[in-house]
């Protein structure tokens, strides 16, 4: 299956996969929602971001370059801005996702501590004579046991399951931010 996916992409002379992006002009790579914003301050087009993320995710760890094909020529300054904006955008996404991972791990630690405290209280209550004397204490002890397991499960689920996809996203954003970028214009001149 992976081989079939990789065959969909062109390769350059050295066998590196090419992620092709074709549009009329450089401005098409950016969101058009803020007409007053300078070219440098505009966000990348959502479709472009989604396409790059899905393509790099699809090709996995294979070497790749991003090749932009434009019908309208651009100067060297515009080309540099595209390179910088791609790099800066995906570095920003990498940092944003890293903060989300850190927040999730903090939450996981908090749930773990709460779960351990509740489990300890539950054990202490279950070993006391109060459980045998008062039904309400027995109910509270059982409630603490259930709450402890729920809290511990949330901590483990976050740590073992939820953070891995985010770590993969960070690696993906890193790969795109550091990708080689090539340009081709309608006159077949490349930079």
How would you explain this protein's 3D organization?
By secondary structure, the chain is an alpha/beta fold. It has one domain (2-185). The chain has five helices and four strands. It has helices at 2-7, 46-59, 76-127, 130-133, 135-177, and strands at 10-11, 17-23, 64-70, 180-185. A four-stranded mixed sheet has the order 1-2-3-4, covered by helices on one side. Helix 2 links the parallel strand 2 and strand 3. Helix 2 packs across helix 5 (135-177) and helix 3 (76-127) runs antiparallel to helix 5. The longest helix has 52 residues, at 76-127. The chain is elongated and about 90 Å long. The model has no long low-confidence stretch (mean pLDDT 87).
Q: How many distinct folded domains?
A: 1
Broad structural category: alpha/beta
- Which term fits the overall shape? elongated
What composes the largest sheet? 4 strands, mixed
Average pLDDT: 87
Distance between the termini: 34 Å
Could you name the ranges where pLDDT drops below 50 across 5 or more consecutive residues? none
List SSEs in N-to-C order: HEEHEHHHE
Count the E strands: 4
Radius of gyration: 26 Å
Spatial order of the strands in the main sheet? Answer: 1-2-3-4
Percent of residues in helices:
55-70%
Strand content: 5-15%
- Total helical segments: 5
